[in-house]
Amino acid sequence: MKLIAGLGNPGKKYDGTKHNTGFMAIDHYLTENRLQLEREKFEGQYTKQKIAGEDIIFLEPQTYMNDSGRSVAQFARFFKIAPQDILIIHDDMDLPLGKIRIRANGKSGGHNGIKSIIRDLGSDKFNRLKIGIKHPDNVTEASVISWVLSPFNAQQNQLMTTAFTTSDQIIADFIAGKDSQFLMNKYN
Predict the structure, then answer these.
(1) Lowest CB count within 10 Å: 42, 78, 91, 113, which one?
(2) Residue among 19, 28, 90, 111 flagged as catalytic
(3) 99: closest CA among 9, 164, 27?
(4) SS3 helix, strand, coil % of the chain, rounded to 5?
(5) CB within 8 A of 112, min separation 6: which ones?
(6) Is 19 labeled as catalytic in the residue annotation?
């Protein structure tokens, strides 16, 4: 069994914002495959599907970004999913807009959602699919908060649609059992 979670903030006011890039990537994959998040459990919206003979849970934690680990860890424990069978999709300000990076494990890189998952899961050995949202032009704490909570403009949306199409391929490869080294070699 595998868990694929996109990170973001719940609620209409956060729809389409840069910090909801993980939600948007999951939604893109689900739409392309005619699936939807139809269940709620452990502070998350999810669906459990059988794909290529593998049980897959797609999850969007509803805890707000900084507490994403609560939901992810509850799913991992309940369904007995090992950290290496988890893929977390999230925004990354250190990457150019729309650029994708796969990472097999490691520290949070300052991302509060990832910090929360490491803390609550008790491990940093889970896979990450990072999608770049770039830094704001004038970096202050206020500008960073405003940047991640602002929507993408039309030009940025085009770049993100390309990134989401690539993330669909990464998700398919992850489901097919490709390991993190394969994914990093193919997509980084």
Answers:
(1) 78
(2) 19
(3) 164
(4) 45, 25, 35
(5) 65, 66
(6) yes
Is the Cβ–Cβ distance between 179 and 105 less than 8 Å? Answer: no
Enter the tokens of residue 107: 């520290």
Number of domains in the chain: 1
Domain that holds residue 122: 2-187
CATH at residue 135: 3.40.50.1470
User: Which residue in 103, 99, 94, 113 sits closest to 160, CA to CA?
Assistant: 99
Name the nearest CA neighbour of 117 among 187, 59, 188: 59
Predicted TM-score (pTM) of this structure: 0.95
pLDDT digits (tens, 9 = 90+) for 48-81: 999 989 999 999 999 999 999 999 999 999 999 9
CB 3 within 8 A of CB 84: no
